[in-house]
Specification:
seven-stranded mixed sheet; alpha/beta; 247 residues
Length: 247
């Protein structure tokens, strides 16, 4: 007897799972809201950037424009107490206060005198121990030095009579240029040539040409003059050495 296995196939039919309509609408509204907010922020940033580009920067005019002269009644200080200030006076001796060697023992040096052969006698500061010394740093290419040179040549006679030693220290330059300069202006006092790297000028705190350093008989710097020396300056600095430019 044939046995026929009959299997009943149960076919389960399931409907697709779908999102509730209300949830879909909520998600869509949220996306729209985010888009609108981002768009507004971008628009605001663009507007701010555009405003900055179109607005001219505030600057202070320093041009000497005649149209800007006259009464300035809108000054923020008008009718108010003037601010206090403390500033140094501008005078011929103001540079003396900043000299690093002021009231200190001067550095020793050994330099060769200017001469045609280039092998001049060696000058030592110690040679003038106990004697007031004035050291004038100069260079032939220095315009203020050419203005100062005639005064230095004229003053040498008076200084020599008072027992003051005057030494000119030429900057690092060709010997021929320096000799031409001393001959042109009649500089008969001792002139020496600084080292190739200007070591003496550096040691004496010289920052520009011309500069003149005043040293008393104890070898201490009592004054320094920056710029072309004149009669007023010489009198002022010699007084600090207990001397006078009038002899």
């Amino acid at each position: 007897m044939d046995t026929k296995d009959t299997t009943t196939n149960n076919i389960e039919t399931r409907e697709p799972v779908t999102e509730p309509v209300a949830l879909k609408q909520h998600s869509r509204k949220r996306n729209i809201t985010i888009f609108v907010i981002v768009s507004i922020l971008n628009a605001a940033l663009l507007a701010l950037l555009w405003t900055q580009l179109l607005t001219p920067a505030h600057t202070t005019t320093l041009v000497d424009d005649p149209s800007l002269t006259g009464d300035v009644s809108a000054s923020p200080l008008l009718g108010k107490q003037a601010p206090d200030f403390t500033l140094p006076m501008l005078d011929d001796s103001s540079a003396n206060n900043a000299h690093p060697l002021l009231h200190r023992q001067v550095p020793a040096f050994m330099l060769g005198m200017l001469n045609e052969s280039g092998t001049g006698k060696q000058i030592h500061l110690s040679d003038y121990k106990g004697t007031p010394v004035i050291m004038n740093f100069w260079a032939s290419w220095c315009a203020p030095c050419t203005q100062e040179a005639p005064f230095m040549a004229k003053s040498w006679t008076t200084l020599q009579a008072q027992g003051v030693v005057l030494i000119g220290v030429d900057g690092a330059e060709p010997m021929s240029n320096a000799l031409t300069f001393t001959k042109k202006y009649g500089l008969t006092y001792t002139n020496v040539r600084d080292t190739i790297n200007g070591a003496t000028a550096i040691a004496y705190g010289v920052t520009s040409f011309p500069e003149t350093v005043f040293i008393n008989g104890q070898g201490v710097v009592v004054a320094k003059w920056q710029g072309a020396l004149n009669e007023k300056g010489l009198q002022l600095e010699l007084a600090k050495m207990g001397l006078s430019s009038k002899g």
